[in-house]
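Subject: sequence -> structure tokens, single chain

Hey, anyone have a minute? Need the predicted structure for the following. Not urgent.
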Amino acid sequence: MSLTHIDIDDESLEKAKRLGGHRTKTAAVAAALDEYNERRDRIAAFDRAIELAKDWDIEGMEAAHRAAKEAYRR
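Reply:
Had a minute. Here:
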């Protein structure tokens, strides 16, 4: 943990404390950073999935699925 001095708008900080149910400024800022990091992680995961999906072949996947079902039935 690091001690950091930053300027934050008092009204925004008080609103974050109230909406988040935080008792301290530190708790409100920590929660905001956690939410920000989680959101950015989800965005990065979504971007990776989209990049992977560019190479997907839906027709090939469907054919492989049908073939696997046929092989299982025999």
